[in-house]
Amino acid sequence: MERTKVALLGSGFIADIHIESYQRFVPEAEVVAVYARDINKAKAFAQKHHIPNWYDSVDDIISKSGCEVVDICLPNFLHAQTTLKAARAKKHVIIEKPLAVTLEEADEMIKVCAEQKVNLMYAEELCFAPKYERVRHLVKEGAVGELFMLKQAEKHSGPHTDWFYDVDLAGGGVLMDMGCHAFGWFFWMLNNARVKSVTASMSTVLHSPRTKGEDNSIVIVEFENGVTAVAENSWAKHGGMDDRCEVYGKAGVVYADLFLGNAALAYSKNGYGYAMEKADTTAGWSFPIFEEAFNQGYPHELKHFIDCVRTGQPPLVTGKLGRDVLEVIYAAYASAGQGKKIELPFKAQVKKPVDLWLK
Amino acid sequence: MERTKVALLGSGFIADIHIESYQRFVPEAEVVAVYARDINKAKAFAQKHHIPNWYDSVDDIISKSGCEVVDICLPNFLHAQTTLKAARAKKHVIIEKPLAVTLEEADEMIKVCAEQKVNLMYAEELCFAPKYERVRHLVKEGAVGELFMLKQAEKHSGPHTDWFYDVDLAGGGVLMDMGCHAFGWFFWMLNNARVKSVTASMSTVLHSPRTKGEDNSIVIVEFENGVTAVAENSWAKHGGMDDRCEVYGKAGVVYADLFLGNAALAYSKNGYGYAMEKADTTAGWSFPIFEEAFNQGYPHELKHFIDCVRTGQPPLVTGKLGRDVLEVIYAAYASAGQGKKIELPFKAQVKKPVDLWLK
Amino acid sequence: MERTKVALLGSGFIADIHIESYQRFVPEAEVVAVYARDINKAKAFAQKHHIPNWYDSVDDIISKSGCEVVDICLPNFLHAQTTLKAARAKKHVIIEKPLAVTLEEADEMIKVCAEQKVNLMYAEELCFAPKYERVRHLVKEGAVGELFMLKQAEKHSGPHTDWFYDVDLAGGGVLMDMGCHAFGWFFWMLNNARVKSVTASMSTVLHSPRTKGEDNSIVIVEFENGVTAVAENSWAKHGGMDDRCEVYGKAGVVYADLFLGNAALAYSKNGYGYAMEKADTTAGWSFPIFEEAFNQGYPHELKHFIDCVRTGQPPLVTGKLGRDVLEVIYAAYASAGQGKKIELPFKAQVKKPVDLWLK
Amino acid sequence: MERTKVALLGSGFIADIHIESYQRFVPEAEVVAVYARDINKAKAFAQKHHIPNWYDSVDDIISKSGCEVVDICLPNFLHAQTTLKAARAKKHVIIEKPLAVTLEEADEMIKVCAEQKVNLMYAEELCFAPKYERVRHLVKEGAVGELFMLKQAEKHSGPHTDWFYDVDLAGGGVLMDMGCHAFGWFFWMLNNARVKSVTASMSTVLHSPRTKGEDNSIVIVEFENGVTAVAENSWAKHGGMDDRCEVYGKAGVVYADLFLGNAALAYSKNGYGYAMEKADTTAGWSFPIFEEAFNQGYPHELKHFIDCVRTGQPPLVTGKLGRDVLEVIYAAYASAGQGKKIELPFKAQVKKPVDLWLK
To answer: For the purposes of burial, counting CB atoms within 10 Å of the CB of B49, is it exposed (0-12), middle (13-18) or buried (19 or more)?
Structure first.
């Protein structure tokens, strides 16, 4: 079997998850090279994961590594320019969330990838998380009847890396970082139903000296099909990652909890190494999760993308979804800024989404 | 011990809970009479519960039963007029939620009770529910640090009695029926902090032929102290009662679930009698709750009210809270109607709150 | 209402629970006096709880306090002699578990109480714990069909008081302390079905320098009706009290958890005052329980006993049950000692049950 | 990459799980042929799963399919003879639990595989189930201190296939079918510690007309290192598969639940397709599990075995473990039959283990 060659851009938290997913679960893919800004970091990552080549130049890894797919695990502000470079070099693109910082960037990424006939594959792993997918399939089987409300929450105590807190690099706060998941999943659950309006409440409650961005937000999305959706996102929630959904239909409900709901339950007088993402402590009661990457759907997602590249079938999750998510984020910031419901379609000329709230 | 004489007005679902609470847990009180519109219902209720007298006239039960306290478990549209009659007869008043249909009624109830020097005791049982109170005390001890977000949800598949669905009698839909609890509990948790703004999304998803009122709502309340609160209320949620809260502080979180979180877990091939309020079925898996009235705090609430009457100390939960809750309800309907955030204080001249949404 | 006069003997952990239960939930009872070995402790307890009289003589409290009921919350080795004194003074007796240290004591207690025509009321609160009672009623309704297996577990990290660890005073270890609950509840669930055999495994795993008694045990009880029951008891389990049951029938199952299953779920960076019985810490994740005495059934139990005294009806839980439980405990120690199944009826001449294991 | 060729023997429930595991998660393996007694079943299975060859002769599939590994998913009574054939043909063997029906068979299987220098890989998937492995690693990190008790339970309402109920073909009832898992996992958790004694209670409560074997059992295993272990196994438990473990150490506890504890929670008025293994119904509340094979560890197990074949490293789980498990099963039946604790090592000359109980 000839394997599909992937260049991995980035060597941080999410790059770790991608490399684990490829190597354990996607045998059709071969990660042939890794890029990091710091060549020593790139080399260390490559050696740790038995990747044959490493680079500190984006241009070089794209042109010289022999890759067919560029998998972009870089900070938000680099998403657009890197995607454009890869696409113009005729490489398929896997792009982590959010798709881009601005709608203009998003539109150009979609346009250029289409022109270059490469896939723009938007890595929303909740569309593949096996427990969430179980929920979606139940709903499709009619288990809860016609939907009328969706809720999705993702919360922890804040990112470990500095650029997330710099709104000029990230484009916003927790909504840019984690709101993407909720909005992407809403579209996924509702077959890309169109949004009617967005209403948001935001605040900076825990990290205010460190960031101008919001670290807590509630967003209500009303869809044209009558479904109401609620996204809760926070960087101010202690005790480890929280990732939950609730689905309400006229004939039933389904709840799913990816972290506490998949974990063992431990009581340790002395603590131990690691419980789950962002858990502060392991002494006392804790919820040790297992197969963390698998349970969030990364292997399923990357396998699907590599399959698409190999077979030519169109990916189920594309730049279109990422662009729609970004539009909801714009509308959410505008709603929080103006204190009113924002109707979609919505467009605004800003340098970054959070400007619609911060002003 | 001389017991405090209570006249109970109403013989429905909530009257059952009050009489159980008095008789099992409030020995200082004696229910001396019951009123129902239908004298046969009144008599049957009285005989079942060993209440010596029964009436089908509100005036009579107030004037003739020898009561010191009138406990009003009647439909919403009767709250104001019954309270005024009781107060003018110098009886203390226990009034079920919501306090009244309109703000004008609420204001008059408060004024007249003050003039007559009787207590207007607002029966928000979540202020007494022992699990919720446990949460509140944790917070006061500093367990989660400074609060920044509260959530409270109350959901089931819809009331059993017709008048709830008639907005002219009820004043609105699920928000009038169950939103009261969320808003009352927010004020209670936050020491009557002042509300800055209210934003709401509402819809009628399940009971649309039967009611013009909303049967599903999400309300965001922003407080002046920086706390954001989210109330979720639904008459469209199957599988039994759902009553949950989440408390977010800068140093931790607390979650509490009054029904699934206090129940046993049963699997029955054939089913059995009763699992919990509004459970459709007991076959298959079910969550049988126990001591349902106690776990919701009714005994604690009524004991406190009777203690207040006996000792002269002021009740902790009064018409003031009920009035503040009603103002939030007004603002929520207005927000859903106008598609924007409504700032408080808010007042509007309407026959009933839901008119601000229905127009 | 004339209240029934109770003398409370003891001022420790369990006496606290009894006094709270009487004063909040059993208005028909009046605790008129308290006894403690140390008069200062007795006085402090009395003053804290507004009890008018206190004693440091068992004879005096029985003869001089004017009580009708003696409620014995003393260490195991005092159960028999105190019961006999009370019965001979024509007082009804409420006796905490275990009924006695030896079967001979138990038999004499039952005989003397019968002769004196006073109630010997055995305070097995699991027969009244509302969640467990909910389970029992489900079973009686046929929810799970014919029973074939029961499990009950009670575990924590060990008692706070020294005498529990002294087998000469306690008669044994965790089985004497907490195994009582399991065996008593089995009889209760099975309508006093007869035991066919008992098999036990015991060890001293955590408290071995401090006690010769077992601190961990597993006991299998086979009943003549074909039901198998498993009791798990431990003084070596960290993380707070664990009290759970499982009921297996030919048409279903029911599970109930009195502590984790009734608690809120909190995450606290700094900790707070108290989570539940025997919880070591409140920092990190914890399970704060609420209404701890009520949820274990103490008020329901004591109310039933006082009702029996007032009405003359026979108590549902008597010395007979306590004696049957003690026989199972004897058999369990003998089984652990001899490494074989012990058939009932079983009798042995020993100073204390644990001798059958320790030898 | 040259793939390792596997012949799959069997086309039932467990063969489905193995083929899914190989094809999704073990790219180093290639299933080249399938055997079933009925050639049409073999062909249908092969075509469904894109397996190139199918056989109805064990000899043929071993000699003609070109396989390096024979994976035996056949009924218990065929385990020994098939293993011997494969080993003598120099094929590595993957054998589903239980290793064999008798200890004599087990001993010969181990001997012949050793002589032929092929791996005898015992497919105890609980040694690989990711949640259970998470628990084991916590323990190794010292999270709960020194162990003193293990519990493991596996329960459902009975197998779908007839031969399980025929003790002549299966060797016993639920203990042969599911007790293997508990005992294998105990040895795994305790680094193959030696067993001191076994005590068991068994009964036939639900399937008595259909089987002479036990369908409910409790087994206590005392290890020489002082650890007590309790295995609960049942074919009489309704409501879907139950697979749980509890680990008790001197400094903490860990609990893990593979089914209810990994599932979403759904309420469906109308039901839907499938919730989990052995769930009777999906109407009402249900616990839909996801990635069922993965969560039970089959992919991890088979990947490990194939890795061993490819690299020559010794498998971690071998016929030795399966033989030790079978010895405990023998002792358990003897204990239930004789009503006493059985000390190990234990041997008996019987045609099948259950004879030690049935007599």
So the answer is: middle
Nearest to D80 by CA among D211, D185, D169, D184: D169
Contact status, residue C101 vs residue C352, Cβ threshold 8 Å: yes
Structure tokens of C38? 């140390």
Using DSSP, state whether A234 is helix, strand or coil: strand
Neighbours of chain B (3+ CB pairs under 8 A): A, C, D
Taking the C-alpha atoms of residue A236 and residue A206, their distance in angstroms, rounded to an integer, is 6
DSSP per-residue codes, D240-302:
S-EEEEEEEETTEEEEEESSTTTS-EEEESS--S--STT----SEEE----SHHHHHTHHHHH
Instruction: Read off the tokens for C194.
Output: 């007869």
Select from A133, A145, A268 the Cβ nearest to the Cβ of D143.
Answer: A268
| Neighboring chain D residues of C203 at a CB cutoff of 8 Å | 148, 226, 228
Specify whether the CB–CB gap between D225 and D189 falls below 8 A. no
Residues B85 and C94: their CA atoms lie apart, in Å, by: 49
Nearest to A138 by CA among D259, B234, D292, D267: D267
Report the percent of chain B where pLDDT is more than 70: 100
Chain D contact set for A138 (CB, 8 A): 264, 266, 268, 272, 288
Q: What is the pLDDT of residues A49-87, one digit of tens each?
A: 999 999 999 999 999 999 999 999 999 999 999 999 999
d(CA C90, CA A184): 76
B262: contact with D, CB 8 A cutoff: no
Q: Is A23 exposed, middle or buried (0-12, 13-18, 19+ CB in 10 A)?
A: middle
- The rounded mean pLDDT for chain B is 97
Residues of chain C with pLDDT under 70: none
Inter-CA distances, D37 with C68, D41, D55, Å: 79, 8, 8
Q: Report whether pLDDT(D312) > 80.
A: yes
Distance CA C303, CA C22 (A): 8
CB atoms within 10 A of CB A349: 8
Interface check C209 vs D, CB under 8 A: no
Does B138 contact C254 at a Cβ distance shorter than 8 Å?
no
Chain D residues touching residue C257 (CB < 8 angstroms): none
B261 touches chain C (CB under 8 A): yes
d(CA A68, CA B192) in angstroms, rounded, equals 61
